Hints:
Blueprint: E1 9-13, H1 39-42, E2 61-66, H2 72-88, E3 92-95, E4 106-111, E5 115-119, E6 129-134, H3 136-139, H4 142-153, E7 168-170, E8 218-222, E9 225-227, H5 239-248
Parallel strand pairs: 2-3, 2-4, 4-6
Antiparallel strand pairs: 1-5, 5-6, 7-8, 8-9
Signal peptide: 1-22
Pfam families: Astacin
Protein name: Metalloendopeptidase
Amino acid sequence: MLFPLGCLFVVLAVAGPCLVASEGIETYENYYNEIHVDDEQAEAKTRNALKSEFQRWPGNKIYYRISGDYSDQEVANVRTAMSSFNEQTCVQFEEINGSPPAGRRYVYFKKSPNMCGTRVGYNPIPFGSHDVQLNERCLTMPAVIQHETLHLLGLFHEQSRPDRNEFVQIEYDNIPRKYWSQFMAMNSTTTYNVPYDYESVMHYAKNAFAKDPTKPTIRALVDGKPVERELGQVRGPSEGDWTKIRLMYKC
């Protein structure tokens, strides 16, 4: 299924009690307002990596601005998150204070009272800012800022890879029906042949959205048999995450 460029928008927010026993990246997410598009397009957010070169940022230099209402520590956390991409990939983020070069889109880190999120992938029209909205809680976590940056570069969640059924088993009986769409596997995208990554910052925790947080909603498969292990983390991108970006942007 094809979707218009620039229609996908993933939002993280602090909204109500956490649904998992331990904090994973999904504890920041608000799925009632996750994507600002029609429902039939919302399913596309679960894909792992965009195939279309038109939805990748052109070139390897991306300009970014930081809102003037960030605290000094929040500014430092954004800069720390962005510098990791400069160190680990050929995608180079350069901070600007004024306008970017004519005809160039740029990333704009904005302050939000509750939302944390960004559009997935590059949208060539219109020129101007590609907004990343972050609330105070998300701004304390460089890993969450990196998660959002991976989204804007074109990555989705790891457990929705087209090959995920070879590596994880979803326990739907322990997931409220309204959250089932967050666990869909999508077959129309690429993994860049990067091995499945249980440690990805884009992977949900083992208890994500659990009815009973003492039981997993995602089990890893070892030799085809389900086992319980930790999944995902909020420390920062894994080597698999970096590898996908390097391949996507031809580093």
